[in-house]
């Protein structure tokens, strides 16, 4: 009798993962509408004729690569979060809002005109239903740059009503919310000249910034801490941990390898996961270029280079950083779970979702992507007796090559499961925010 009673329960426990869970490649941020805040940029979400494809190169800083052709039926980015971009120097609240709404409307209009290939999701459940029942590319809205956009609870509620899943609070300029990381190289220093003149110790999250994080959480919107200066990030994490608001970072680096203000420390990575958040890595070689790496990683990079297994600026920067971050998180699973008996390898696939790592392409984000490893733009000469894939010869020239990018890593033995699990992690977290809304009617 007892045996019979237990049988169904046991069967249920043996199920490998919740049947509802998803495992898709989900791009945590791409920019399809840069032409709206910056008119000189080519229009995203347009189709080219197959007889006349655009020239493609990984050097595409000022060129639109988010052609609709590349985004439909794309297994390498089944779900894409479009980051509407704020205007960096906007001063009027009205104008700031208008620029974002125009981008949201542009994407929504495109999707309704191409509903055979694309679908919009405004809730985690809509994403799940679309994954289960269609082959469409699923688009979610986010905003990069909170400048002038979150001034009251009503503002945050408004963005939630538009289906915004998260806002990257700080972008390239210091503003009313906090300070922006000034990274090695000229670009961010030039754009944020004012920030560069301020004393680092004064470059904090402001009261307005704290309030914005709270308004967003109340409305069910996540805060992305990417781009924050070190002390602004510290303040944001402290505030979020104190108020049970899980943080996400969509495209910062790992300080032991990218030892610049955009690198998150090992300790903070642990704390982010302890508080139910997660991190995601940018895909472009430039963003993950090693900088003053800790000796242990510099040694690894040097020995890989000697073996011709590391080509700076290529997919190798991503491959190296991803694998280090993955190992770091998995080795610290017990610390993250605050349970000394936890061993990552012994967890089931559902339990592993907590330790996911996302990715962010930032296509059309004013940057180049990975250069190729081989040929004139690469590190190594072409061998006559070997065939090469397009991704190996061109690098990551456009989003249509994402699936090839993942397949190349798989062929080289890289475990991408944490990346696929991150789609589930993201939906669970988004749902958590929606379930914990504190919006009074
Ligand atoms: Zn960014
Ligand atoms: Zn961006």
| Helix content, binned percent | 25-40%
How do the helices and strands follow one another from N- to C-terminus? Answer: HEHEHEHEHEHHHEHEEEHEHHHEHHH
Q: Please tally the β strands and state the result.
A: 11
Largest sheet, if any? 6 strands, parallel
CATH top level? Alpha Beta
The mean pLDDT is 94
Shape: globular
Distance between the termini: 52 Å
- Determine the structural class based on helices, strands and strand pairing: alpha/beta
CATH superfamily: Metal-dependent hydrolases
Which molecules are bound in this entry?
zinc ion
Radius of gyration: 22 Å
Our count of helices gives 16
The total domain count is 1
Q: In percent, how much strand structure appears in the residues? A: 5-15%
Question: Could you name the ranges where pLDDT drops below 50 across 5 or more consecutive residues?
Answer: 1-17
Q: How would you describe the overall organization of this protein?
A:
The N terminus is likely disordered. By secondary structure, the chain is α/β, with parallel strands linked by helices. α4 crosses α16 and α5 packs across α8. Strands 1, 2, 3, 4, 5 and 6 form a six-stranded parallel beta sheet that branches. The protein has a three-stranded parallel beta sheet with strand order 7-10-11. Strands 8-9 form a two-stranded parallel ribbon. It binds zinc ion (ZN) (2 copies). The site of one zinc ion has 6 residues, from loops. One zinc ion binds next to loops.
């Amino acid at each position: 009798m007892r045996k019979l009673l237990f049988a169904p329960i046991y069967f249920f426990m043996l199920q490998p993962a919740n049947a509802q869970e998803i495992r898709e490649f989900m791009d945590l941020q791409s920019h399809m509408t840069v032409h709206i805040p910056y008119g000189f940029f080519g229009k995203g979400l347009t189709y080219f004729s197959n007889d006349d494809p655009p020239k493609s190169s990984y050097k595409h800083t000022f060129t639109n690569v988010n052609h609709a052709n590349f985004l439909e039926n794309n297994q390498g980015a089944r779900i894409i979060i479009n980051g509407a971009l704020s205007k960096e120097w906007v001063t009027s609240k009205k104008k700031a809002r208008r620029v974002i709404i125009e981008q949201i409307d542009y994407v929504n209009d495109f999707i309704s005109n191409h509903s055979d290939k694309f679908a919009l999701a405004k809730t985690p459940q809509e994403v799940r239903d679309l994954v289960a029942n269609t082959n469409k590319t699923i688009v979610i809205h986010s905003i990069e740059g909170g400048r002038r956009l979150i001034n009251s609870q009503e503002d945050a509620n408004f963005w939630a009503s538009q289906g915004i899943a998260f806002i990257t609070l700080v972008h390239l300029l210091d503003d009313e919310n906090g300070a922006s990381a000034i990274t090695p190289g000229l670009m961010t220093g030039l754009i944020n000249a004012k920030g560069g003149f301020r004393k680092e110790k004064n470059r904090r999250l402001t009261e307005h910034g704290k309030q914005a994080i709270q308004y967003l959480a109340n409305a069910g919107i996540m805060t992305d801490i990417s781009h924050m200066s070190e002390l602004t990030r510290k303040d944001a994490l402290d505030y979020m941990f104190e108020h049970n608001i899980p943080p996400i970072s969509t495209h910062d680096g790992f300080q032991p390898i990218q030892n610049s203000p955009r690198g998150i420390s090992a300790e903070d990575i642990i704390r982010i996961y302890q508080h139910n958040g997660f991190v995601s890595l940018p895909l472009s070689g430039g963003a993950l270029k090693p900088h003053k790496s800790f000796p242990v990683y510099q040694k690894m990079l040097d020995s890989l280079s000697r073996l011709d297994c590391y080509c700076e600026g290529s997919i190798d920067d991503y491959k190296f950083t991803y694998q280090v971050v993955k190992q770091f998180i998995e080795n610290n699973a017990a610390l993250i779970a605050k349970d000394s008996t936890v061993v990552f390898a012994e967890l089931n696939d559902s339990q592993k979702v907590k330790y996911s790592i996302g990715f962010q392409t930032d296509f059309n984000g004013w940057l180049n992507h990975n250069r190729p490893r081989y040929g004139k733009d690469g590190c190594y000469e072409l061998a006559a007796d070997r065939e090469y894939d397009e991704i190996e010869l061109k690098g990551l020239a456009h989003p249509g090559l994402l699936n090839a990018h993942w397949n190349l890593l798989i062929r080289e033995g890289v475990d991408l499961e944490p990346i696929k699990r991150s789609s589930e992690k993201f939906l669970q977290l988004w749902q958590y925010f929606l379930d914990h809304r504190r919006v009074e009617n």
